[in-house]
Amino acid sequence: MEPFKHLISRTVVMPAANIDTDQIIPARFLTTTTREGLGARLFADWRYDAEGRPRPDFVLNRPEADGCRILVAGRNFGCGSSREHAPWALTDYGFRAVISTEIADIFRNNSLKNGLLPVVVEPAVSDWLLAHPGSELSLDVATRTLTLPTGVAVEFPLEAFAQHCLLEGVDELGYLLARSADIAAYEAQA
Q1: How far is Cα 125 from Cα 167, in angstroms, rounded to an integer?
Q2: pLDDT tens profile 46-70
Q3: Fold of the 6-189 domain
């Protein structure tokens, strides 16, 4: 996993509330155990028509979405069934962060374990972001700060262990493996 320290990116805005994991990555694409290729299936039912052609009016199919690494969504993003494939699809597409006023707990935890930063903001900040698609934002994981193009900086919640893992580019298993010498020494004392 790539360390996540600081990100400057434009935003893609999806203002809908209650975007669930089946909309993020439809269940028919859950046959893989790797993340590669899932980005092409991200929001598949909204992104493509019945013949598989890109819908020109869908936000990810517009030229202004190219290169954007931050998704701004309506409240309650990632609700629904637990599926790690949802953050896999978002990161495989190229997103590194999702911003909303509310992010479902299981989705948030799966995201943090896979290098996707879930950022929860107050409604006033969300309203500004939703009204200004394509804005260039700055995210700083070390200071837990989101900076708007207006210069306004807001703090966002991030549990200390999750912050450490993001900054180091490790998941929980990687964190433990990095301490294998200490674990072996402890076990040798027993």
Answers
A1: 25
A2: 999 999 999 999 999 999 999 999 9
A3: Aconitase; domain 4 (3.20.19)
